[in-house]
Design goal:
Layout (H helix, E strand, L loop, with lengths): L1 E10 L3 E4 L20 H12 L3 E4 L6 H16 L8 E6 L17 H8 L8 E6 L4 H14 L5 E9 L16 E11 L4 E9 L8 E5 L10 E5 L1 H23 L6 E6 L4 H13 L14 H4 L6 H10 L13 E8 L3 E8 L1
Parallel strand pairs: 4-5, 4-6, 11-12
Antiparallel strand pairs: 1-7, 2-3, 6-7, 8-13, 9-10, 12-13
């Protein structure tokens, strides 16, 4: 028995926000003082570091559970399964449904339950629950689904990763330009085909690292101090990721028994182009090798960082031939890797 992805789907929001669209923003320092550089220089430097040219936001009428449902429906259609045969629906996100213009997150009922309701699944033995695991949430959902299947508790699972970060960012914080919205979903099944999940690795670092990503007040001191926004210690996250993600990737690959020369693609969380490149370069350096050209498909340039949605949407785009000059074929070995709030890291070695 092998455990494979038998279908995938995604929802890429329709609203495009370019770096030029931030030209009229009032960016402030943490203490509320005016930022010294012009917005033109800020966005130019931002692009040079992150590689992000534009990002996607949902329209005002949509929430995270809405776009998660759309991605899930497309994954089910792609896999050609009967949704009534699903044993688990796992929805990975971080902030629940935040409706446009509100300051509260809505998690009752869970987003997974909302998706199950919208899919019109009657089977009460299809268990729906949410996962809060930062950006690596979708990957961790896949790891849990694999465990359920191995334990004989499930045969088919739906794993969703979705987020609407545009609703929880501080417009006066330059970091707000990183974040975007999106949703991706996959069907994980036990099957007799060759390939599937070969190995996985997960780690949580909290001793010093737990609050590298956190909720904090706006940089604008005139804003209500009780309203909180997504904040991060960017330099600390960068250093943490470079020190720890390559080692987790190596541990996972070594556990799989696959030689690094056999690796065809690395699908890494789309957080920051320069950081992702540095992580993969360090990963290859652990094997005394150089990072091959084209090993790392990227979507961040047009889609930004949609947190838990970046890896499943990247996978869906890759397998459906939507990434320029990138392709994947049956039998190819790929390495998934992610890092995010918690601080959590995980990886999966997977044969197509």
């Amino acid at each position: 028995m092998n455990i494979k992805i038998t279908g995938s789907g995604s929802y890429i929001p329709t609203e495009t926000v370019t770096n030029n669209d931030f030209s009229n923003h009032i960016f402030l320092n943490e203490d509320g003082s005016n930022f010294a550089l012009s917005n033109e220089i800020i966005t130019e430097k931002f692009y040079g570091i992150t590689g992000i040219q534009e990002r996607k936001y949902v329209t005002d009428d949509l929430t995270t559970s809405d776009i998660g449902f759309i991605a899930a429906k497309r994954a089910i259609e792609d896999s050609k399964i009967d949704p009534e045969t699903l044993d688990y629906i796992i929805f990975a996100h971080n902030f629940g449904d935040v409706k446009k213009g509100t300051i509260q997150t809505d998690l009752l009922p869970s987003l997974a339950s909302r998706v199950k309701h919208n899919l019109r699944i009657k089977n009460p033995k299809c268990i729906a629950y949410d996962m809060l695991f930062g950006c690596p949430g979708w990957l961790e959902g896949v790891i849990q689904a694999q465990a359920f299947i191995k334990a004989g508790m499930a045969k088919k699972c739906l794993i969703i990763g979705g987020e609407t970060l545009s609703r929880v960012v501080d417009p006066h914080d330059r970091d707000s330009m990183i974040y975007s919205d999106g949703a991706g979903a996959t069907i994980i099944e036990a099957c007799k085909e060759d390939g599937g999940i070969l190995a996985h690795e997960t780690a949580t670092y909290t001793y010093d690292e737990a609050y590298f990503l956190f909720f904090g007040k706006s940089f604008n001191n005139d804003h209500n101090p009780d309203v909180r926004y997504l904040k991060m210690h960017g330099r600390k996250i960068y250093e943490f990721a470079l020190s720890n993600v390559p080692k987790a990737m190596k541990d996972c690959l070594d556990k799989s028994g696959v030689a690094i020369s056999q690796l065809k693609k690395i699908l890494i969380h789309q957080a920051n182009e320069k950081m992702d490149e540095a992580i993969v370069q360090r990963f290859y350096k652990l094997y005394d090798q150089t990072m091959p050209d084209g090993i790392m498909p990227m979507s961040i340039h047009e889609l930004g960082n949609s947190s838990v949605a970046t890896v499943p949407t990247l996978y869906d785009s890759l397998v459906k031939g939507k990434i320029k000059d990138q392709s994947i074929h049956k039998g190819d070995v790929i390495l998934f890797a992610s890092v995010g709030s918690g601080m959590n890291i995980n990886a999966i070695v997977y044969r197509m």
